[in-house]
Amino acid sequence: MKEFELINRYFKGRGITRRDVNLGIGDDCALVTVPQNCQLAITTDTLVAGVHFFDDIAPRALGHRVLAVNLSDLAAMGAEPTWVSVALTLPNIDVEWLEEFTEGMHEIAEYFNVQIIGGDTTQGPLSITICAKGIVPEGKALRRSGAKIGDWIYVTGPLGDAGLAIEARKQGLNIAPEHLRYVNQRFDYPTPRVAAGQVLRGFASSAIDISDGLLADLGHIVGMSQVNASINVNNIPTSDAMRATLKRDQQLPFILNYGDDYELLFTVPDSNKSMLEMKLRQYGVDASCIGQIKSGEGLIELMLDGNKLEYDRTGFEHFTKESV
To answer: Any idea which positions bind Mg(2+) 1 (predicted)?
Structure first.
């Protein structure tokens, strides 16, 4: 199979067809129509074998994951996902692998009503680059720079599960089989909080998705908003798997520093707090309030059992951290 045979077999004509796509796969560029009074949100991520995913990851899970992490960026901006481009670099053409990989990709694309409109295929070490696009009403996009003094800090779900899955695979942590299945699912098949992100528009003052770790990503909000944050570590939600596997002090690096959870971290003015909680519950999201924005310029204070906790806020960063 050659390049264009691969494209025609696994991408062209597969998946949903959106009415706002004027020209999809097959030409030099795709053509789309952006609705009036909307802005185009664009994000690009590259996932590399051995850095962002394990070499032995199931191809179906990888197809899901590469789209999910990009849709999570759109969710953090409050955008509705619409179109994606896929650049796929493969060491060789494995028909069985490609069938599973593209099936995983098309499944999540169809679930979120996203059309794959183009991309590229090349030969080389396995890596996938996704350029995801979405639309957001003009002036309504959520940003990292909007947090204000007195705003409450929330997270949409439990933290640390992906890190637990990573360390279980690397170090062989003793995790009960049912909990191991759960954390592996959380890592391999992350769920982008797309609906929650759109609910946040008009209620939240800032937002980011947790890809590099709670403290690292919160650091982006407080730095760009020029405020401080106070976090009650006791209020950070954790899963049954986390609580059954590790003692509380052992959980700290997982819930504070590990990334790949792809929950949304956001701030809310006190006047919007109750209404937003109610709206999110309607979408099955039981968000947890974990702290508050304070005056200052970029510091994060951690409180545990009423005492101040000194902790390194470094999260994942390329060129400085060990890969998966």
So the answer is: 44-45, 120
- Domains delineated in the chain: 3-137 (3.30.1330.10), 152-306 (3.90.650.10)
Q: What is the pLDDT of residues 245-301, one digit of tens each?
A: 999 999 999 999 998 999 999 999 999 999 999 999 999 999 999 999 999 989 999
Is the pLDDT at 323 greater than 80? The verdict is no
211 labeled binding residue: yes
How far apart, in whole angstroms, are the C-alpha atoms of residue 192 and residue 195?
A: 9
Residue type, 213: G
Nearest residue to 229 (alpha-carbon basis) of 247, 253, 251, 256: 256
Residue 28 is assigned to a ligand binding site: yes
Amino acid type, 123: Q
pLDDT in tens, 141-153: 999 999 999 999 9
Q: Give the whole-angstrom CA distance, residue 300 versus residue 218.
A: 8
**Prediction pTM value:** 0.92
Contact 293, 227 (CB under 8 A): yes
- 120 known member of a binding site: yes
CA dist., res. 66 & res. 22, Å (int): 25
